[in-house]
Amino acid sequence: MNEIGSTDSATPLMGIRGILVLWMFVLSSIAYVDRVNISIAGQAIAKEFHLSNIQLGWVFSAFVLGYALFQAPAGRLADRIGPRRALALGVVWWGIFTSAITALSPRVGAVLACLIAIRFALGMGEAIVYPASNCVVSRWIPSQERGIANGIIFAGVGFGAGVTPPAITYVLLHYGWRASFWVSAVVGILAGAVWFLIARDSPFSHPWVSDEERGFIRAHVAPADCGDQVQRMSWGAIVGNRSVQAMTLSYFTYGYVTYIFFGWFFIYLNAVRGVDLRHSSYYTSIPFLAMGLGAPLGGWISDRLTRSFGKRVGRCGLACVAMILCGIFVALGTQVTSVAWATTVLAGGVGTLYIAQSSFWSVSADLGKESAGSLSGIMNMGCQLGGALTSSLTPAIAGHFGWTTSFVVSALLVIVGGMSWLAVTPEAVQ
Q1: Dihedral of CA 380/384/389/390: which sign?
Q2: Residue spans per domain, the chain
Q3: Which has fewest Cβ within 10 Å: 15, 141, 201, 273?
Q4: What pLDDT does 281 receive?
Q5: Would the pLDDT of 39 be above 80?
Q6: pLDDT tens, residue by residue, 74-100
Q7: What's the rounded mean pLDDT across residues 158-170?
């Protein structure tokens, strides 16, 4: 029996598979430190290199564009060489290009072009992280545990982005913005070395996996997900699937909202709400911590609803409701005059949004099976294109129509994204 209510699922994510999920949480956190640190150091960088907010937006967008365009190739790479090597190589790449920005000086010619190129390259390297993690989930984690597993992994987004503002602000104020990038790079490389030591591509090639855990995984994960040699899905089959199309559209709107917080929320509080640098760092942490709570909570709820009512309700229905609620919260947050209350309401919106996070990755793992990396790469490309758009469009809308309009546009988009889940059939590909 593969039913979720069976007794051998009573202790989810035990053994080596639980350790791998926890370390993917660590890598997820570090990945977001590496991408959010520039939003905290952004004003210092802009001042040193004489950049306007629009030009700084181009630098932000360069990362997201590189990240978006290399999602699908990174996913296919993870499918082919395995997530162990793919993630280890990716972390080394992050370290190189996170620290490369510190070598620039205002005397360098075409400094804006150099900043854009470095951030684009960093985005290319970070593109591997979630398609590779989805390969691990597909190969190691039974379907009934995938909600909470993905919830834990993506809690790293909120945790990493949440600790970044106060941590980077502290280093920046005491040692300068360059030191904050060096710290991020070193921590990432060390975590990648640990990953390479403890991870294997398949539970059947890992020397630390007990016979009991190996048997549990074999009983509950389809053979194709267990690393057997099988036919992978073609790009045409992936792109042509209507459920994949609907999830990609939905994830586009998801990315549009989240990247406002990653790229512009700190600057919004500092420049628009008049909050000083130190307090802005604390307020900025609140939405990210809400993400960190929303992701595992959503995974837990999703698994329980799936157990009782099936994937249509537990994955698709939950994501639809959560994203619609997010849109309502974000729209309401623009109407609050108090900085503390506005931050709380907006944090409620993005926290609610992250309740939907595990649905995207659980369904993509179920649909993709042995091509989980490739399929989730296509889906995540939609999210990152939404992020690239908002990185540049948000300050442009704010400049012409005000910051309230920027947030309302994102609220309307995410409601459309929630409705898109009505077109997803989670068991469409078997």
Answers
A1: positive
A2: 11-228+235-423
A3: 273
A4: 63
A5: no
A6: 999 999 999 999 999 999 998 899 889
A7: 78
Residue the block writes with tokens 């758009």: 389
Superfamily grouping for domain 11-228+235-423:
MFS general substrate transporter like domains (1.20.1250.20)
Instruction: Report the C-alpha gap between 284 and 268 in whole angstroms.
Output: 10
Q: What would the two tokens of residue 302 be?
A: 């999703």
Map tokens 């099976």 to a residue. Answer: 369
Residue range 55-71, pLDDT digits in tens: 887 888 788 788 888 99
Among 112, 135, 12, 17, residue whose Cα is nearest residue 60? 112
